[in-house]
Design goal:
Largest sheet: 5 strands, parallel
Radius of gyration: 19 Å
Order of helices and strands: EHEHHEHEHEEEEEHHEHHEHH
Number of helices: 11
Number of strands: 11
Strand content: 5-15%
Bound molecules: zinc ion
Helix content: 25-40%
Distance between the termini: 31 Å
Length: about 300
């Protein structure tokens, strides 16, 4: 079959349900080790789903998780997926000063590389926390040896977002590409189109239409994200949280797995590095082909 669909980037932020930033005011990180950890079974289920659909993905993994579940990290790589970094302790990049941010991302990269025996090239900031106040983070990432970041969500949101930044991959500096989360441009506004609470809240057909539009109208691959806990309706409920946080975390959580399965069927999915880091090479090859064609 001649499949002309674009390959989109599927990304999974590997953290457990008690580590999400919105719960930080309610859960003391010193108590993380006492919580019931569900990351292993949830990632295992995702690996099986991806295998069934012959899809590849990028797993932005927390150093904290990798330290405790090294087998899980190796399993991700053995299944043919890209291992990337979500930092070590899931602190928002915007809450850290330069040395603390540098320590966090360097520690996570080294840990993941030591466990998996491969080079880690990608990074995603917790809660898309690179914005106008900490653009210096790109230099720190490049210096630590990262090749790309996927940390900017070009929307307006109460916790993150940089609505005026480019919607598609761009050079953040000489060495580093920033690959933003996908938005749909409607009436001079960017709408979130690729994961998280919106994906669980909106009917699936709306999400599918938005992603298709980006492929067909913008002609660009999309970057979609989700978390292992979003496929786990039986996760322990966190008590005493405010209504908005509760709604955002749990809305339609029992339906997410089915929706992810539909996404895997309706689109073609691949790894960030293969889609975006390979591009300059592809462009050079295309130019070479054109030059050959022109000279004959
Ligand atoms: Zn995260």
């Amino acid at each position: 079959m001649n499949d002309t669909r674009l390959t989109n980037a599927l990304t999974i932020d590997v953290e457990d349900y008690f580590q999400v930033s919105a719960f930080a005011p309610y859960i003391d990180r010193a108590g993380w080790d006492q919580r019931e950890c569900r990351i292993e079974r949830n990632v295992q289920r995702i690996l099986e789903l991806l295998e069934q659909h012959q899809a590849r993905a990028t797993f932005f993994t927390l150093g904290w998780i990798a330290e405790r579940y090294p087998e899980l990290v190796r399993r991700i790589v053995l299944h043919g997926h890209e291992l990337a970094s979500h930092g070590h302790g899931h602190q928002r990049a915007s809450d850290l000063d330069r040395p603390a941010f540098s320590d966090d991302i360097t520690r996570a990269k080294k840990l993941l590389e030591d466990i998996a025996g491969i080079e880690v090239r990608g990074y995603r900031a917790p809660s898309f926390s690179i914005g106008s106040g900490n653009l210096w983070a790109f230099d720190v990432l490049a210096r630590a040896g990262y090749r790309y970041s996927s940390s900017i969500y070009p929307i307006r949101h109460d916790h993150y977002g940089l609505p005026d930044s480019p919607r598609f991959a761009y050079r953040a500096n000489e060495a580093l590409l920033e690959i933003p989360i996908t938005t749909l441009r409607v009436l001079r506004r960017n709408l979130p189109a690729s994961g998280g609470g919106w994906f669980r809240l909106l009917p699936y057909a709306v999400s599918r239409a938005m992603l298709r539009r980006v492929n067909q109208v913008d002609g660009e691959p999309t970057v979609f994200y989700f978390h292992p806990w979003e496929l786990d309706p039986d996760q322990p409920r966190i008590a005493g949280i405010d209504l908005k946080t509760r709604f955002r975390h749990y809305v339609n959580i029992g339906r997410t797995q089915r929706r992810i399965e539909r996404l895997l069927t309706d689109f073609r999915w691949g790894r960030m590095d293969e889609i975006f880091l390979a591009r300059p090479g592809q462009a050079a090859a295309a130019v070479a082909r054109l030059a050959t064609a022109a000279s004959t």
